[in-house]
Amino acid sequence: MSARLLLIGPPGAGKGTQAVRLSASLGVPAISTGDIFRENVRSETELGTKAKAYMDAGDNVPDSLTNDLVRDRLAQSDCAEGFLLDGYPRTTDQVRALDEFLAEHGTAMDVVIELVADPDVVVERLKKRALDQGRSDDDESVVRHRLEVYRQQTAPLIDLYDGRGMLAKVDGIGEIDEVTARISEALAARGILVSD
Q1: How much is the pLDDT for 72?
Q2: pTM of this prediction?
Protein backbone atom coordinates (compact mmCIF):
# COMPACT_ATOMS: atom_id res chain seq x y z
CA MET A 1 0.00 0.00 0.00
CA SER A 2 1.21 3.51 -0.81
CA ALA A 3 1.53 5.80 2.21
CA ARG A 4 3.34 9.08 2.76
CA LEU A 5 3.40 9.81 6.48
CA LEU A 6 5.01 12.18 8.93
CA LEU A 7 5.56 11.49 12.63
CA ILE A 8 5.80 14.72 14.58
CA GLY A 9 6.27 15.37 18.28
CA PRO A 10 8.80 16.59 20.81
CA PRO A 11 12.22 14.97 21.20
CA GLY A 12 11.79 11.76 23.20
CA ALA A 13 8.13 11.21 22.28
CA GLY A 14 9.00 7.84 20.73
CA LYS A 15 9.00 8.83 17.05
CA GLY A 16 12.06 6.74 16.17
CA THR A 17 10.75 3.60 17.84
CA GLN A 18 7.33 3.93 16.24
CA ALA A 19 8.81 4.82 12.83
CA VAL A 20 10.74 1.53 12.70
CA ARG A 21 7.59 -0.45 13.54
CA LEU A 22 5.35 1.42 11.09
CA SER A 23 7.94 1.21 8.33
CA ALA A 24 8.01 -2.59 8.61
CA SER A 25 4.20 -2.87 8.81
CA LEU A 26 3.54 -0.54 5.88
CA GLY A 27 6.48 -1.65 3.73
CA VAL A 28 7.81 1.89 3.29
CA PRO A 29 11.20 3.27 4.38
CA ALA A 30 11.47 5.22 7.62
CA ILE A 31 13.52 8.33 7.00
CA SER A 32 15.00 9.95 10.09
CA THR A 33 17.07 13.07 9.61
CA GLY A 34 18.51 12.52 13.10
CA ASP A 35 19.80 9.06 12.10
CA ILE A 36 21.25 10.43 8.87
CA PHE A 37 22.99 13.26 10.72
CA ARG A 38 24.32 10.91 13.42
CA GLU A 39 25.67 8.54 10.75
CA ASN A 40 27.45 11.47 9.11
CA VAL A 41 28.87 12.52 12.50
CA ARG A 42 30.14 8.96 13.14
CA SER A 43 31.67 8.83 9.65
CA GLU A 44 33.16 12.31 10.18
CA THR A 45 31.87 13.57 6.83
CA GLU A 46 31.85 17.28 6.03
CA LEU A 47 28.07 17.40 6.65
CA GLY A 48 28.57 15.46 9.89
CA THR A 49 31.14 17.95 11.17
CA LYS A 50 28.80 20.86 10.40
CA ALA A 51 25.78 19.10 11.87
CA LYS A 52 27.56 18.01 15.07
CA ALA A 53 28.04 21.58 16.31
CA TYR A 54 24.30 22.25 16.03
CA MET A 55 23.29 18.87 17.46
CA ASP A 56 25.58 19.15 20.50
CA ALA A 57 24.08 22.55 21.31
CA GLY A 58 20.55 21.15 20.95
CA ASP A 59 19.83 23.32 17.91
CA ASN A 60 18.30 22.19 14.64
CA VAL A 61 20.59 21.75 11.66
CA PRO A 62 19.91 24.66 9.22
CA ASP A 63 17.10 24.20 6.70
CA SER A 64 19.35 24.44 3.64
CA LEU A 65 21.47 21.42 4.69
CA THR A 66 18.46 19.46 5.86
CA ASN A 67 16.31 20.13 2.77
CA ASP A 68 19.07 19.02 0.39
CA LEU A 69 19.64 15.84 2.37
CA VAL A 70 15.94 14.92 2.51
CA ARG A 71 15.28 15.73 -1.17
CA ASP A 72 18.16 13.45 -2.07
CA ARG A 73 16.79 10.64 0.10
CA LEU A 74 13.18 10.95 -1.09
CA ALA A 75 14.34 10.79 -4.72
CA GLN A 76 15.66 7.24 -4.17
CA SER A 77 13.68 4.39 -5.71
CA ASP A 78 12.59 2.80 -2.41
CA CYS A 79 10.50 5.93 -1.68
CA ALA A 80 8.47 5.73 -4.91
CA GLU A 81 5.53 4.00 -3.16
CA GLY A 82 5.77 5.97 0.06
CA PHE A 83 7.81 6.79 3.11
CA LEU A 84 7.57 7.67 6.77
CA LEU A 85 9.32 10.87 7.83
CA ASP A 86 10.67 11.23 11.38
CA GLY A 87 12.18 14.58 12.35
CA TYR A 88 11.40 16.38 9.10
CA PRO A 89 9.94 18.86 8.38
CA ARG A 90 10.63 20.88 11.52
CA THR A 91 9.97 24.40 10.24
CA THR A 92 7.49 26.06 7.91
CA ASP A 93 10.32 26.60 5.40
CA GLN A 94 10.97 22.85 5.44
CA VAL A 95 7.24 22.21 4.90
CA ARG A 96 7.41 24.45 1.83
CA ALA A 97 10.44 22.57 0.50
CA LEU A 98 8.73 19.20 1.10
CA ASP A 99 5.48 20.40 -0.54
CA GLU A 100 7.45 21.57 -3.59
CA PHE A 101 9.31 18.27 -3.87
CA LEU A 102 6.12 16.21 -3.60
CA ALA A 103 4.28 18.45 -6.10
CA GLU A 104 7.17 18.00 -8.56
CA HIS A 105 6.60 14.24 -8.25
CA GLY A 106 2.79 14.46 -8.51
CA THR A 107 2.07 13.37 -4.95
CA ALA A 108 1.37 14.73 -1.45
CA MET A 109 1.50 13.75 2.22
CA ASP A 110 -1.32 11.45 3.39
CA VAL A 111 -1.33 11.77 7.18
CA VAL A 112 0.60 13.55 9.91
CA ILE A 113 0.68 11.67 13.24
CA GLU A 114 1.40 13.90 16.23
CA LEU A 115 2.79 11.97 19.18
CA VAL A 116 1.75 13.95 22.25
CA ALA A 117 4.00 13.63 25.32
CA ASP A 118 4.40 15.46 28.64
CA PRO A 119 7.74 17.39 28.71
CA ASP A 120 8.79 15.99 32.12
CA VAL A 121 8.21 12.42 30.91
CA VAL A 122 10.24 13.22 27.80
CA VAL A 123 13.17 14.57 29.86
CA GLU A 124 13.26 11.39 31.96
CA ARG A 125 13.10 9.19 28.84
CA LEU A 126 15.97 11.06 27.20
CA LYS A 127 18.14 11.06 30.33
CA LYS A 128 17.78 7.28 30.36
CA ARG A 129 18.57 7.09 26.62
CA ALA A 130 21.69 9.22 27.18
CA LEU A 131 22.94 6.67 29.72
CA ASP A 132 22.00 3.66 27.56
CA GLN A 133 23.33 5.00 24.24
CA GLY A 134 25.91 7.59 25.31
CA ARG A 135 24.26 10.34 23.27
CA SER A 136 25.67 13.83 23.87
CA ASP A 137 22.43 15.43 22.64
CA ASP A 138 20.45 13.83 25.52
CA ASP A 139 22.02 15.76 28.43
CA GLU A 140 19.20 17.31 30.53
CA SER A 141 20.06 20.96 29.78
CA VAL A 142 20.36 20.15 26.06
CA VAL A 143 17.07 18.23 26.17
CA ARG A 144 15.24 21.15 27.79
CA HIS A 145 16.71 23.47 25.16
CA ARG A 146 15.61 21.06 22.38
CA LEU A 147 12.08 21.04 23.83
CA GLU A 148 12.02 24.85 23.74
CA VAL A 149 13.34 24.88 20.16
CA TYR A 150 10.62 22.35 19.28
CA ARG A 151 7.94 24.49 20.94
CA GLN A 152 9.04 27.63 19.08
CA GLN A 153 9.87 26.23 15.64
CA THR A 154 8.09 22.93 15.11
CA ALA A 155 4.86 23.19 17.10
CA PRO A 156 3.43 25.72 14.56
CA LEU A 157 3.50 22.90 11.98
CA ILE A 158 0.85 21.12 14.02
CA ASP A 159 -1.57 23.99 13.36
CA LEU A 160 -0.55 24.09 9.69
CA TYR A 161 -1.20 20.37 9.11
CA ASP A 162 -4.34 20.46 11.26
CA GLY A 163 -5.62 23.27 9.04
CA ARG A 164 -5.10 20.98 6.03
CA GLY A 165 -7.13 18.24 7.74
CA MET A 166 -4.13 15.90 7.82
CA LEU A 167 -3.36 15.76 11.56
CA ALA A 168 -4.09 12.79 13.83
CA LYS A 169 -3.15 13.27 17.51
CA VAL A 170 -1.96 10.15 19.34
CA ASP A 171 -0.97 9.80 23.00
CA GLY A 172 2.75 8.90 22.91
CA ILE A 173 2.96 7.86 26.57
CA GLY A 174 2.61 4.20 27.51
CA GLU A 175 3.98 0.82 26.51
CA ILE A 176 5.41 0.69 22.99
CA ASP A 177 2.75 -1.79 21.80
CA GLU A 178 -0.04 0.42 23.19
CA VAL A 179 1.28 3.47 21.30
CA THR A 180 1.67 1.41 18.11
CA ALA A 181 -1.95 0.24 18.44
CA ARG A 182 -3.14 3.84 18.88
CA ILE A 183 -1.25 4.92 15.74
CA SER A 184 -2.66 1.97 13.77
CA GLU A 185 -6.20 2.98 14.82
CA ALA A 186 -5.58 6.59 13.77
CA LEU A 187 -4.25 5.46 10.39
CA ALA A 188 -7.13 3.01 9.86
CA ALA A 189 -9.58 5.86 10.47
CA ARG A 190 -7.93 7.56 7.47
CA GLY A 191 -7.99 4.48 5.24
CA ILE A 192 -4.39 3.35 5.80
CA LEU A 193 -4.27 -0.21 7.10
CA VAL A 194 -1.23 -1.35 9.07
CA SER A 195 -0.42 -5.07 8.84
CA ASP A 196 0.62 -7.01 11.94
Answers
A1: 80
A2: 0.82
